[in-house]
Amino acid sequence: MIPQQEPDFNLNHLKLYYGKLFPFADLVRWVSYGNDGKHPGCDQSYIGRREFSFTLENDIYLRFQSFHNALELENSIKEKTPVKIDIGPVYTVDPAKRNAYAQSGDNNVFAPVERELIFDIDMSDYDDVRYCCSGADVCLVCWPLMTIAIKVIDTALRDDFGFKHILWVYSGRRGVHCWVCDGKARRLTNEQRGAIADYFRVYKGNENSHKKVSLMGAALHPFLATSYTNVLKNYFEKNLLTGQNLLATEERYEKILDMIPDESIASELRGRWQDSRRSSSAKEDINVVRWEQCKQLLQSGKHKAQGLRRCIEEIVFCFTYPRLDMEVSKHMNHLLKAPFCVHPKTGRVCVPIDPKRCEEFDPTTVPTLSQLIEELNYEGSRADADGESNRTSLGNAITLFRSSFLQPLLKACKEEIENSYNLKLQQSKNSLGW
Amino acid sequence: MEIVRPQNRRNLLSSSNEAVSAPTIPLYRSAPPLEVRLEDFESFAIDRLRVLKGISDGMSRGKKAEEMENLVKDLWKVNMRHQEATQVLNKDIISHFVLRLVYCRTEDLRKWFLSMETALFRYRFRLLNAEAQRTVMEEFDLPYRAVSNVEFESIKEKLGQVARSMGQPSPTADAIFYKVPFEEVPELVAGRRVFINQGYAYVAMNQIVSLVATQFRSQLSKALILTNRKWTSSIREQEKHRLTPIVEALSSSYLGPDYSQSREYADISLKDIDQVAKSSFPLCMRHLFDKLKEDHHLKHGGRMQLGLFLKGVGLNLDDALAFWRSEFSKKVGLEKFEKQYAYNIRHNYGKEGKRTDYTPYSCQKIISSTPGAGDHHGCPYRHFSEENLRAALSGMGVNSQAMEDVMDKVRNRHYQLACTLTFEALHGMPCDAGINHPNQYFSDSQKILKPKKDSSA
């Protein structure tokens, strides 16, 4: 388990972190989307219309901060030492001056116009399907749930929706954040964002109603079918079933029996499992044995009736499928914590996660603030001031951010800016050439 | 559109012969060059409002697409006919443009009008034959081509999977699919009713309605903003003595009270709240209230639904803060409450952020919400399992006879009627108007309970 209290998360360390390690330039290059260049097609006002918001140590919340370049952001953060930095949308006008515009009478002037499509997945939403820990705690036994979420959502964002520039970030404690940064994604309306979020939604109802996952119809939608065969099924059977001991005790298997709509099958399984303690051989894992029995009974020829057909899938989905915080994704003006922040409760840095190798990510070895400061002190004695982050364990995280996300993104942004500029040029030429 | 006074009776729209039996639906792109009599201006608008109101009621009862289709057909037939056949199309167009003026004036009005007009358009489109549908599509001038045979063959299997997932047969080789950017068909994406690949959705011919409805909606949405500008900049002042009073009366007469300003402000205080919750909260609020007391926490949807309701009931900001603080601080601590939640409560009361005074949720909004894991908001009649609903109702004191009546309404998806029956069973009094708003439930309940108390005192 990740220790809850990082003894030396303190403001002096955070100051040092912002002073020496925090990648301001990378962050600003990212959210500028190429508009910080010299090309005549660049929108020079773009970065200044982006909302940042800071949470200071005494829970003072500063919203609608705006900056014109990396240096301004850096100076402000170094001065204020926020314990949390959030990134908001790009507005029609500089958010710091919104009140001046509001007084002009037309209340439509100040509105969000661009925002990354974002997803927030939080382990505390999985409390009814993990037995290792609960609430804000995570451990290596339940972390695979996050790995599954990244795999399923990342694949669909790329293959189904055609997005390319996707950043996954560890939230510092109990979950992951996702930023979809393609131009098309940033300009989606709230309705379109809601549609994508709903596309990913399979959980209907809650503890006030029966089913958690309901899969109807004679086939699964291709997205669900692909997720099931490529990710969910394997993780359920090879990892979570035994890792979480999903069928080991009566209380736990009752939960799964509850999901079988056919009472006679459920009671047959219950009968077998209540006796099985005596007869089971020690060789095989009890969870695996029971799951095989469950599958065999539900999928045998005579039970292929309506309603039962999807039961195995429903159980697997219920215990594995990603649970998104829908509200975060549906609205443009939702704030989300910036990458490379330090989580004040754990001291861990919100580092990027490579979706291609997300199964290797280990939240318990993410660099902490105190560890970084220690490394910095050690390196400092070598009197090499150049590129300090490279000398600490933050270096890998920043390298990953640049190589797998920032560089391809900026290349695409540059092309987009040039293309739309040329198009505009062409149009104005055409209108002149009579 | 030009509006003429009643005394100025002229033969209106002489050259209307070609428009007599237009087999299609007007797209209301620009105001027609017609003259309208002042009394028609109002009466046409009222007739159309009856249609839109009927649609709104149907949707809040959770009617299915086919039922909505029949409902719209009937509503249209009853309200939108005209004794002169030549005038039917004109009435359609005129009434739309009048209501556009009426409903352009605030964000809430625009939102309501936009969804009702889009729903109307959608079901009218579904009622057209294939040829007429294609005509409407052409009028939108959509740049989408049908998928070629080669491409169809390559994705045939996936398209079949999607169809079967909706309980439909797999498409045959002569089926027509359009390949459109997924952003153009949000509702098909949201329901996973299309195959999506590399940013494109494959829309079947019988789903085209979603595509055109989205187009219709986005065009109308833009038009409403423009109309609003015109209204505030000139029309309102110019028509001060003639149209403005009509326009302003039309919207308020049909929307029902929004309970944003509680008339009995500060009528309910913190010490009474437990008792009042028991006697006069509808089930949806009672459930949230009980869960809050039990868990000392509610997720966002629940905080909004209950918080705004309490505001409408008359809990002032200070009491509201005290109320939420006393519960939340037991779970998250005082500090975290002040930091994370107090802002939102002040926000609801228009004291932070945009400073909009938010209005309590109506039944329609609550019924159409989609509570997820860990959520407790929504309409219990719709979102609870039968078992849980029965338990909740008997917890409120509904007897077994009334319970069966309530469950009967629930099964037929008449959630508001189910709530009305609950109200009647608990209060022993009829509720003829029916329940349309949780705050109406509350105030009707108080009206019944309060006098009794006064007389006994």
From TrEMBL, chain A:
Tagged with keyword Transferase: yes
Record's keyword terms, sorted: DNA replication, DNA-directed RNA polymerase, Metal-binding, Nucleotidyltransferase, Primosome, Transcription, Transferase, Zinc
Entry's family note: Belongs to the eukaryotic-type primase small subunit family.
One record GO biological process: DNA replication, synthesis of primer
GO molecular function, one term: metal ion binding
Source taxonomy: Eukaryota, Viridiplantae, Streptophyta, Embryophyta, Tracheophyta
Cofactor: Mg(2+); Mn(2+)
Transmembrane segment boundaries: none
Species the sequence originates in: Glycine soja
Alphabetized Gene3D superfamilies for the sequence: DNA primase, PRIM domain
The protein, known as: DNA primase
Keyword presence, Manganese: no
EC number: 2.7.7.-
Catalytic EC class: transferase
Gene Ontology CC, one term: alpha DNA polymerase:primase complex
UniProtKB/TrEMBL annotation, chain B:
Ranges of residues in domain DNA primase large subunit C-terminal: 274-442
Free-text comment on the cofactor: Binds 1 [4Fe-4S] cluster.
Pfam families: DNA_primase_lrg, DNA_primase_lrg_N
Coiled coil regions, renumbered to chain: none
Cofactor(s) required for function per UniProt: [4Fe-4S] cluster
Keyword Iron: yes
Key words, A-Z: 4Fe-4S, DNA replication, DNA-binding, Iron, Iron-sulfur, Metal-binding, Primosome
GO terms under cellular component: alpha DNA polymerase:primase complex
Domain of life: Eukaryota
Keyword Nucleotidyltransferase: no
Matching PANTHER family: DNA PRIMASE LARGE SUBUNIT
The family this protein is said to belong to: Belongs to the eukaryotic-type primase large subunit family.
Job of this protein: DNA primase is the polymerase that synthesizes small RNA primers for the Okazaki fragments made during discontinuous DNA replication.
Protein's name in the database: DNA primase large subunit
Gene field: LOC100806321
